[in-house]
Amino acid sequence: MQCSWKAVILLALASIAIQYTAIRTLTSKPFQLCPVPSPQNCGLLGGPETESPMEGRAGCDDYPYFSFNTSRKTHIMVLATTRSGSSFVGQLLNQHADIFYLFEPLYHVQTTLIPRLSHSRNAADRRVMLGASRDLLRSLYGCDLYFLESYIKPAPANHTTDKLFRRGASRALCSQPVCDAFGPTDANVEEGDCFKKCAALNMTLAADACREKRHVAIKVVRVPEIGDLRALVEDPRLNIKVIQLVRDPRGILSSRIETFRDTYRLWRIWRATGRRPYNLDLSQLTVVCEDFLGSVSTGLSHPHWLKGKYMLVRYEDLSRNPLLKTMEIYDFLGLSMDKSVEEWIQTNTRGSTELSAKHKYGTVRDSAANAESWRLKLSYDMVEYTQATCQKVLHQLGYKAVKSAEELKNMSLSLVQDKTFVPFS
Ligand SMILES: *[C@@H]1O[C@H](CO)[C@@H](O)[C@H](O)[C@H]1NC(C)=O
Ligand SMILES: *[C@@H]1O[C@H](CO)[C@@H](O)[C@H](O)[C@H]1NC(C)=O
Ligand SMILES: *[C@@H]1O[C@H](CO)[C@@H](O)[C@H](O)[C@H]1NC(C)=O
Ligand SMILES: *[C@@H]1O[C@H](CO)[C@@H](O)[C@H](O)[C@H]1NC(C)=O
């Protein structure tokens, strides 16, 4: 019995190695497709070099008959970390009529593979997670939702489950034909209502709904760095566009202390007593900064494989200027922003605090006025420590360090420097 867990990890690593080989083989070979003049194949004819919907269409010039309806599915990924405003960005996509949105499906991978560790730093664990995650994401972008079932506990029977994580955050899964509890006039179903009123989720119907939509968007907070996604980004069957969301690590820390009360208990003790507990898990902070640094360094160095596929968004910019930033995001995706997205922004960024208390993971309270409110919540000690630990990434992302408690608490002085991150195209 002693060795059984090691055996499991070894097995898992072996299976990842096999996956890797499979992916390598696949990506290194040109993608063979019969040149059938069908809309589905059209975008693929140009191979991985012609990725945008516009270019995809140009590739179809030989078949003008089809050219009006040939844009490929876009596979959108919101790459973020917890408490960085990813629910907000997810909603900006979820509200769009042509987008099928899934909220953090990798949750199921993590709870199945690494049940006890919420943010494992063990390198072997991370590799296991990553291999499985890439596989799952690839399937989900292809609307193969059955693949997810192997990670759901208890295992769904007859392709039906009531255990899909945060199902209610996905509009398509709370409306017809997937759920009959609400009519087309129930525009914005509350997440809790969806959970209560919809019957168990029929994965077959969910997959059909996914295929019906033009695009698929997935929110991911369990992949450390953009570099970990290279195999997916380069997969010629996919048309991935990554929106990487970052936030001031000081703000993330503050938000996590409020939200994950058990996991961040020692940080609360530090804040309350002014003394750093000797057994504080500093990696809860350092991992965020290391992952951001790795990711952002890769993203901003413009490697060829990310060309046209990577956009860096600072949460603070989105909070200040939600409509404008959202337009930029849709621009990058090559999609037009629809009315419901705009309306959702209008109703959810007014800074109303009434709704917020109810929703631990709500998006309302994270609106503009709150982007820098962490400054009033963290002690100067903690801020100083974070600044020392995350110095490089703060600088890279344009977050100003403070030199005194007075400066920290002086809200007329913003710590977010103007900085533009032009999508690499
Ligand atoms: C374009 O494709 C969509 C989805 O496949 C389909 O519903 C629609 O009818 C098509 N439009 C035209 C003009 O063929
Ligand atoms: C699954 O479907 C079969 C055939 O319709 C039925 O007999 C069985 O009871 C179902 N299982 C569950 C767990 O609902
Ligand atoms: C799920 O939906 C499919 C397609 O409509 C249907 O054939 C199947 O019977 C449904 N499954 C259950 C368990 O109701
Ligand atoms: C806050 O910062 C502003 C801008 O630098 C400065 O003019 C003001 O004196 C500061 N207020 C306090 C109380 O330090």
What does this structure look like?
The longest helix has 25 residues, at 4-28. Helices cover 44% and strands 8% of the residues. It folds into two domains: 8-72, no CATH class; 73-354 and 363-409, P-loop containing nucleotide triphosphate hydrolases (Rossmann fold), CATH 3.40.50.300. It has helices spanning 4-28, 39-45, 53-58, 86-94, 106-113, 123-141, 146-149, 191-197, 203-212, 230-233, 249-259, 265-273, 283-300, 315-320, 322-333, 339-348, 380-389, 391-397, 405-409, and strands spanning 75-79, 99-103, 160-161, 201-202, 215-220, 240-246, 310-314. The chain has 425 residues and is an alpha/beta fold. Helix 1 packs across helix 6 (123-141), helix 5 packs antiparallel against helix 6 (123-141) and helix 13 (283-300) packs across helix 18. The protein contains 19 helices and seven strands. The strands form two sheets. A five-stranded parallel sheet has the order 2-5-1-6-7, sandwiched between helices. The structure holds 2-acetamido-2-deoxy-beta-D-glucopyranose (4 copies). Keywords: Carbohydrate metabolism, Glycoprotein, Golgi apparatus, Membrane, Signal, Signal-anchor, Transferase, Transmembrane, Transmembrane helix. Belongs to the sulfotransferase 1 family. Gal/GlcNAc/GalNAc subfamily. Its EC number is 2.8.2.-.
